[in-house]
Structure prediction request, 300 residues.
Amino acid sequence: MTESPSPLRQTRRSLPIALLRAREVVMGPIREMLAASGVNEQKWRVLRVLQEQGPLELSQVAEAACLLLSSLTRMVRPMEEEGLIARHTPPEDRRKTVIRITEAGEALIHRHAAESAAIFARIEAEFGAARLEALLDLLESLQKIDPRPR
Amino acid sequence: MTESPSPLRQTRRSLPIALLRAREVVMGPIREMLAASGVNEQKWRVLRVLQEQGPLELSQVAEAACLLLSSLTRMVRPMEEEGLIARHTPPEDRRKTVIRITEAGEALIHRHAAESAAIFARIEAEFGAARLEALLDLLESLQKIDPRPR
DNA sequence: CTCCGATACTTGCTTTGTTAAGTATTTTGC
DNA sequence: GCAAAATACTTAACAAAGCAAGTATCGGAG
Prediction:
């Protein structure tokens, strides 16, 4: 096989693909852990946001949990029925919906707190705390750029 | 607002969220660009893989483009009908399906090559070439770890 | 007070992600 | 050879992502 494919073989490293794969590595074990409780990654993110930041409007939750508002809307009813969150409409602006985490929701988070911490500890140990910090710094500042040409 | 929410406000930086947001920053403009041609991000990834690596078996494409095989299977027929790729079954192993990019597919890539390059050039310029390299290195080595506890 | 544009969600529709099962071909072990 | 295991997809079914369009409030200009 002389293997000199006509395509230019640019094989430049791809940032989009690297981000996808990294996400898989990190979230795979988390998803696995959550499967036992019947919550998925998105519900987990919503609960974490509510637990860390207190009651929020749907738009704020969507922003913080990296979800589209429409996706969140569809998650809210099931999560309320499962007793994980509670919602109310503030009388001063009835367009809004504010949700908060319930005790059952907090309990669910605490049930997984140890394992979740173990997963991230493992990542930190395998990867190195310093490199993890560096990665987070880079990712954070990447978010600040405006990639639109012109 | 005294703002001292009862939840512990751990506000630890979250690797999963950071990866999600970074992906949005990078892929947002690409998706926008592709919308005009009626191809989505996944088809774009498949075409790029084929263009860079030449004809491949479905499994190999799925691996390279970060898709599940079942997702790829579903995309292949429409992409073939749109004339972007061609498929054939190698006689020496008729379980396999090999796909390659067509001229129309290459044309589509070339139509967007300039804009795509501009987007990544913009990212590189805003973010810094050295930091981009560092980020890619970190992401690449993150993929190599095994995050399962124990 | 009333109409108009902006907000904050909601819904509908299509495509994808994910899992699990199913089908068609090889390959292997006796 | 030949049944059993492995490989390489396919299909089915259902939750979730994304996008566009629709609904209910609100805030303001006249």
Q: What stands out?
A: Chain A has one domain: 26-142. The mean pLDDT of chain A is 86. The two ends of chain A are 44 Å apart (CA to CA).
